[in-house]
Amino acid sequence: MEPGEGAVEFMRELTEGMTPTEALDLIRHLMRNPPDEAKVKRCATCNYYFRDKTRPGNAKVCGPSCKTVRKTDQKAEQRARQPQKPKKTKKERRYDEAAWLSAIWRKEKPFDPDKLPYIQAARDRYDRMGGRKKPIRKVEY
Questions:
Q1: Domain of 10, in residue numbers
Q2: Where is the composition biased (Basic residues) (predicted)?
Q3: Residue 93, in any domain of the structure
Q4: Could you tell me if 68 and 125 lie in one domain?
């Protein structure tokens, strides 16, 4: 993982005015041998050193990007530990009561028995034509 903002800032402070080879040697040395300062800590996410600027000195991560990664991992662990909620099943509808039937009839009114042959004839015509009838268009050139 790439170093976070705090780690980059800390290394920039230490390597200011050095040549790239000197800076590389210093960074390698720091990664092997931790600094003795109390405010210099290792980031829990990116594993690079950073200077803790918080007043109580209890920072665990070096910057906002590492904080986001850590919080995302923590939330995933919490979700994995929590028992999953049981899935809700759909309740069966009761049509045996007169009140339920009258309530349903208000929403879904049945067709008039006289209209049923006309509806069936329209469906048959639709099936025989293969769908909606398209208008015949003559293209004039």
A1: 5-81
A2: 82-92
A3: no
A4: no
